[in-house]
Specification:
By secondary structure, the protein is α+β, with helices and mostly antiparallel strands. It has 7 helices and 11 strands. A hairpin with a 2-residue loop joins strand 6 and strand 7.
């Protein structure tokens, strides 16, 4: 396994409100904060920290039901932590964050827990698939067939979240469980990447033979396409051997 992570403030924002977690070879997460002043930055980082603390016993869980439940509970604890921060300090009112987390127990399967519009992609045999469902107003319109994929990509309300972590006292995160194959590549990213690159662009880059170059090109292309938001990505190649590489 080779894990490459990248984060960049982008070309418009002053602060980087994204946060990420890499605890190879098992646990990974991307969070994209929102809120006035520096609240988004605080929300994403506090969420990642609380989530990681709540997953310390995850390695002792076995079976799909137990692991899925443990991931949801970790999301619940992170949500509770950030929600309490928001209601106890006026500066943090309304802050929240997306979060998409990936857990690889090492048995050839993967688990993803997710809320918001940060994404998990699977690249397999030359085909890119978005595994997570965006919890947004525009994604709902697209699911109902009211707008096309192209219309969704440029829709003025595409950033309107329907679900986020830390905004309400209780949440219900999505949990996915799927089988892995030896040549798979997995991409976790904030919407600063997926808003700048269409899936066909991501697919054309992510298949680059060199994983480091693929990660660099994904970041560079998102900036070339406008860089209107913070950009964070974690690219995991199951076939490659190597150490984690990070670039902030």
């Amino acid at each position: 396994m080779l894990v490459v992570s990248r984060t960049h403030v982008g070309l418009v924002r002053e602060n980087n409100e994204d946060a990420f977690l890499v605890r190879a070879p098992h646990l990974f997460a991307v969070a994209d904060g929102m809120g006035g002043h520096a609240a988004g930055e605080i929300a994403s980082r506090a969420t990642i920290k609380a989530f990681e603390a709540a997953t310390h016993s995850l390695r002792h869980e076995q079976g799909e039901g137990s692991i899925s439940s443990a991931l949801r509970q970790a999301f619940d604890k992170a949500n509770e932590h950030v929600f309490k921060m928001a209601v106890s300090n006026e500066k943090y009112t309304g802050m929240g964050t997306t979060m998409t987390a990936l857990y690889l127990p090492g048995d050839g399967t993967a688990y993803c827990c997710h809320i918001g519009d940060s994404r998990l992609y699977l690249y397999r045999d030359g085909v890119l698939q978005q595994l997570t469902k965006d919890h947004t107003y525009v994604a709902n319109l697209q699911e109902k067939g009211e707008i096309t994929e192209e219309e969704a990509f440029v829709h003025p309300q595409r950033h309107m979240l329907l679900k986020a972590l830390g905004v309400e006292e209780e949440i219900m995160a999505d949990v996915l469980h799927f089988e892995l194959q030896g040549q798979d590549r997995l991409l976790l990213c904030s919407d600063g990447l997926s808003d700048m690159l269409r899936d066909v662009e991501i697919a054309s880059i992510i298949g680059d033979e060199d994983v480091q170059q693929a990660a660099d090109r994904l970041l560079e292309q998102s900036l070339d396409n406008g860089g209107r938001d913070n950009v964070t990505l974690i690219l995991i190649d199951l076939a490659e051997q190597g150490e984690e590489s990070s670039n902030g």
